[in-house]
Design brief:
Rossmann fold; two-stranded antiparallel ribbon; about 20% helix; about 25% strand; globular
Amino acid sequence: MTESLLLEGDVSEALPLLPDASVQCIITSPPYWGLRDYGIRGQIGLEPTVAAYVFKLTALFSELRRILKPDGILWLNIGDGYTSGNRGWRAPDKKNPSRAMSVRSDNPPGLKDKDLLGVPWRLAFALQADGWYLRSDIIWHKPNAMPESVKDRPTRAHEYIFQFTKEEQYAYHADAVLQESDDGSKRNRRTVWSINTSPTNGSHIASFPEELVEPCVLAGTKPGDFVLDPFFGCGTVGLVCRRLNRKFIGIELNPEYVDQAMEFLEKQSLNSTSKRRIRYDANKHADQLAFFEAASQRRVLP
């Protein structure tokens, strides 16, 4: 691989297309369990149990470990939620209408109504047990967090970012992400990152801000390195990579998000080698790939 590209299709079908040890860094935020219905067949996040969700992601991340270089880093952003009370649906919050869902799984075994699910740590421990090195848990503090209509607990204003590595020794560029201390001197970056949420790119309702992605790119790569996001959404990781002179590989299941990612990326000053979009569907294109120069142009590769 010599250039950035975007794979449109199911992540489990797209990952086998990528060579071993081909990316220096993975930065991603998979769909959270039971929090969003994107209306796309095969989407992750609507599994019947938390255990099934964690099992599926653990298997996918095992494949990601194959693709990551031995000295590479995985940055994983993951959020949490609460049990459904076995209602099978979720009403809109008057302060957050987008939270409504018509389909919602029952309480996981062993959990009660109103329990916090603990998904981030369940997944982190599963990945650790599968062979990943769990190196850091970072708190993404959201100063402008979405209000919640709750009176019996604090309003949630954080998510987790986990730093995983493939090996005990790896490339981490601490000097690229130093922070300023109170006396004006530089110090090693701390594990609480206060970063506002930003207006959503396109129609994606859960994209993370560029400011959150930037330190992950800088700490985990050098200019020219490849960064993979297997849940590309509307392309935040790609936008940051282009701005910081890194190359990206994105994988996204939702065609609408892919179109919008292409649009956002093409608004940047890109050269002719950065507009590759490959559509892959194992059921329809088992023996061929489609190559996109732009959202409106398509030709089939031999």
